[in-house]
Amino acid sequence: MAYTFDISDNRRIVEALKTGDEETFKEVYTVFCAPLRHYATTILQNEQAAYEVVQDVFTAVWLNRKRLDAAKPLRNYLLRAVHNNSLRLLKYNEARRRREISAAAELRPDRPLLVTDPEHFPTDRYLAGSAARLHGREVRRVAPADLPELLAAHGEQVAVISYSPVDFRTGALHDMAALTRAAHEAGALALWDLSGSAGALDVDLHAWEADFALGCGYRYLGGGPGAPAYCFVADRHRTGSSDGGCDAAGVLHPLSGGFAEPASGLALSELRTGLSILDGVSPAALAAKTAGLVDLFLRRLRENCATACIEVVAPPDGRPHGAEVSLRHPLAQRVADELCNRGVLVEHAEPDVLRCSFAPSWLRYVDVWEATDQLHDVLHAVA
To answer: Are 168 and 119 in contact (CB under 8 A)?
Structure first.
């Protein structure tokens, strides 16, 4: 790409930004966005969160452009801001998830096993191990399909099962009610991570009789990075509390104030705006819209990309897709980068998987149609 200035001329770039030069800002964004997003992804292990962190950093740069210091390298400023914001988000998510797992485990102090999905996000697997070490427990990583067998053999030892309704790799939708019921029959508790489902699928914690749930506010609920997390604790686990915000074990419930951590006014405002779109919309209606978007995407993929070197990762056992479709391509990272440059955001999971997410609140059918056109063009461009 031909630039209107030497990108290494830091002083000239910063001075142009300070005057509100939009063309300079666009070129700075073009040069630095992809490497910053890649760097944030190495920290967060989540491309959507990384993308949003980088967007927030560039937004802050533009809003505070008059305060930039031309004597300091802009590249270093951007890298430091992305680094700090990524770590802040990671620590925030780690703290809330560790506390929730710990609170659940303490309600079954005589049971040594914490069971979680081997296909969870890497950070989720790490946090389960951290909580287990904290409480002297053992983590068993068991696929949802194999959970009934484990519970039949070792159910009396299981304290908590922790799963997401949607498979991280395949996008398959699990039977949440059946898994929760199986855990309860063994005397264990069920903790659900709703980050990839609330706001897009028919989530009914009361009907499932779930014990605990948690999730992030930035995925399908419309908040940005740093948006408050949310937690659910069944009423039956609050009755033994000596304090309104504690359970029988004296562990502070993350839900005490409605959100898992104190949040800034801006973050709360963003999330409340996103949630306002959902006001009066039933989870069943959201799930129906999601299913329609997914069906359209798959149909357009078959029609438009039949000759391309791309494979749909089919959910096992004929299960339906949740709010995600996983694709496999040998140049997945390059495809993801090219799509991002065209305004289509997908997540790359090593080594060759692309995850496409469908948010029914703001994604239109025409958006899916146009995204498949862009995917067709990118696949032929990188072939």
So the answer is: yes
- Of 342, 344, 347, 348, the residue nearest 367 (C-alpha): 344
Q: What is the DSSP letter of 166?
A: B
Q: How far apart are CA 163 and CA 133, in angstroms?
A: 19
pLDDT, tens digit (0-9, with 9 covering 90-100), for 311-337? 998 888 788 889 999 999 999 888 988
What do you get for the CA distance between the two ends of the chain, in Å?
21
**Residue with token string 């005589």:** 110
pLDDT at 329: 92
Contact 200, 325 (CB under 8 A): no
CA distances from 188 to 104, 154, 173, 253, 256 (A): 10, 11, 22, 19, 23
Tokens of 177: 């009610």
pTM over 0.85: no
**Are the C-beta atoms of 297 and 289 separated by less than 8 Å?**
no
Tokens of 315: 């959910």
Cα 247 from Cα 48, distance rounded (Å): 34
Cis peptide preceding 351, ω within 30 of 0: yes
Burial of 383 (0-12, 13-18, 19+ CB in 10 A): exposed
Q: How far apart are CA 120 and CA 85, in angstroms?
A: 23
